[in-house]
Each structure stands twice: as C-alpha cells, then as structure tokens.
C-alpha cells in the first residue's frame, strides 16, 4: 500500500506543552491516569512495545530501543522538536480536534495544524457548552434558549459536536427530544445541586438534539476510556433507541472508539444509514493486534461507514503511532482480502481511499 496515504483524523485532542519524565510519559500513554508499578511498566504491553518498534526510529534510535533510552532521547530533543517530528510523520490531511478536554494548557488548534502541516478543525463538546451556560448564572427557565444561542455561536466555525454522555450517565438515553418543561426541571436540578459537571440524562439528550438541529454531525464517545467511565454503560447497543429516532434527520452519527464493543458498533453501522464507526484509541492500544480489530469491525460495517481517528491526547507519539498502526491494519485487511480472492485490487484501492479520508470528507464537509 502507499505509505504516504494521507489520513483524516476525525477525532483527536491536542498535545501537552512540556517535557515529560518516565512517570508522566506513561501516565499519558494510556487511559490509566496513574500506572502502578505493581504490574511492571506499560512499556511491557502492546502499546509500549509499539512505541519502541515504530516511534524510536523517528527520534533517530534503533527500532526496539529500550524505554529508558527512548525517554532520554525524547528529553534531549525537547517537546517542541518531538512534536514537530511525530505530527509531521503522521501523514494527516486534516485533524478534527475535540477542544472540550483540557486538564492542562494544550497547544492551540492553529499550532497543532501547523505541526501536522494539515488544517485543524474544531469539534465542540456539548456538555462543556452546557456547563459554561449553567455556570454563567442562567435561570432554569432560561437555560434552553441560552444553550441554543451559545451552541450556535460556539459552532460557527466547527465541523461537528460531541457528546460524552457515556462518561456521565451512560448511553441508555431515551429517544425523544425532551420537552421544554423537562429541560427546565433538569437545569433546575443541576443549579440546585451546584454540580460542576452535567450528568443528567435529560440534559445530554437535549444537547444532542440541539446539535442535530444545527445540522452538525454528532460524535458519541463509545467503549473504552479512562476509568471514570463505567464501561458496561458505554455499550453502543444502549444507544439504539436514540440512533433510531435520529435516523430521519439524516444527520451523521459517529460512534468513536467502540472497543470492546466494535462488533456491536459494526452492526449499528450496517443497519442504520447515518451511523459511522472507528477504532480510535483502541488501534494504538492494541499495537500489533490492530489488524485483527479492524477485521472484526468490518465483519459487518461497510467500508463506506468506517473512518480513521487516533483519539490522540497529550503525546505527539500517539498521532503518529495511531496513523502507522491504522495504515498497517487497513493494509492487512484489504490485502488479505485480495490474496484470498474475496475482492479485487481495484476494490481494495477504493476502500483504502474511502476509509482514509473520503468517508470523513463526505460526513463533515459535504453534509
Ligand atoms: Zn477523545
């Protein structure tokens, strides 16, 4: 396959602006915020091994360089140079950046795009906008209108919105658009509780429908994430009633990550015309097993419904590693099919272009 096949990364975050010691590096490598020492090091897992295999040469080291040597070299080069090398080597044609998660100051969108030599577009996190509106002293009755206005303003230059309901209430959301009285009551509950984070089934649902009303593609966090999330509640099958209700709108609905529910997600992509799927975050965590993951996703998911994302956050390595492993996975699946006589070389070439970027461009830039 063409190694230069540029990818649209339709879900990622930005990079941290500091040098990292081993502990800080490992803390950003996976979703485990405090990797313990009891079980050894994350370098002894498929993602750590993939860093040594694929990332070491980008820092001028031998393939499989030991972790300590890798981290020494990283510090020697400094985070700016490390960022430039990995983002540059990722081979991206566009980045769609979720700006709603910023536990520390991250590189701005324009600077991130400059490192990747590709345009960086914004995805607005619905719950963050709701939290900002509620923090600004709005009344419960005034919340709905204020949220709509704020969301319209925040998304003026954005290409989509995202919901993290999976993290907060889980995905068991009712299908209907909530009534104005329900929204007012939910906003009142939030304001009385003085909570910082939206975690109310009615508010998530309201925000999702508002995104749809603006005509914007809606991304959903599905499957694995940091341990805040109850993974059982992030099963995409829970979302079926809402996905079904949203079908008539024609708005693209993007199921992110999905692992270990990628087969369920593949089914949803097959049966619902507006549902799209990816294996972001999971692909680089699985390292050399990414091909098996993509093969399982596409047992049912049509190639016209599969997008690429890294879900990279913090470490520049992750943009490059995810892209490298995804290209290899795609090649493994598509070339494997050609060799087995399941489809032609021409089909494989077409699927490659669809998954690498055409599907994402159709979803975000022409719908
Ligand atoms: Zn993410």
Structure description:
It is a single chain. This protein has 367 residues and is an alpha/beta fold. It folds into two domains: 7-15 and 94-365, TIM Barrel (Alpha-Beta Barrel); 20-77, no CATH class. It has 16 helices and seven strands. Strands 1-2-3-4-5-6-7 form a seven-stranded parallel sheet, with helices on both faces. It is globular, with a radius of gyration of 20 Å. The model has no long low-confidence stretch (mean pLDDT 95). The protein binds zinc ion. Residues 11, 13, 98, 311 line the site of zinc ion. Zinc ion is lined by residues 11, 13, 98, 311.
Please count the beta strands (DSSP E, at least 2 residues each). 7
Q: Which ligands accompany this protein?
A: zinc ion
Please tell me how large the radius of gyration is: 20 Å
Number of helices: 16
Distance, first to last CA: 29 Å
Which assembly state applies to the chains in this document?
single chain
Domain Amidohydrolase-related: 126-365
GO molecular function: hydrolase activity
Keywords: Hydrolase
Organism: Amycolatopsis albispora
Key features?
367 residues, alpha/beta, 48% helix, binds zinc ion, 7 strands, globular, 7-stranded parallel sheet, 2 domains, TIM Barrel
What topology does this entry show?
Blueprint: E1 7-12, H1 22-29, H2 46-55, H3 67-77, H4 79-89, E2 92-98, H5 109-116, E3 120-125, H6 126-135, H7 143-154, E4 158-163, H8 165-168, H9 180-193, H10 201-213, E5 218-222, H11 240-246, E6 253-257, H12 262-271, E7 275-277, H13 282-286, H14 290-297, H15 316-339, H16 345-365
Parallel strand pairs: 1-2, 2-3, 3-4, 4-5, 5-6, 6-7
The chain binds zinc ion (ZN).
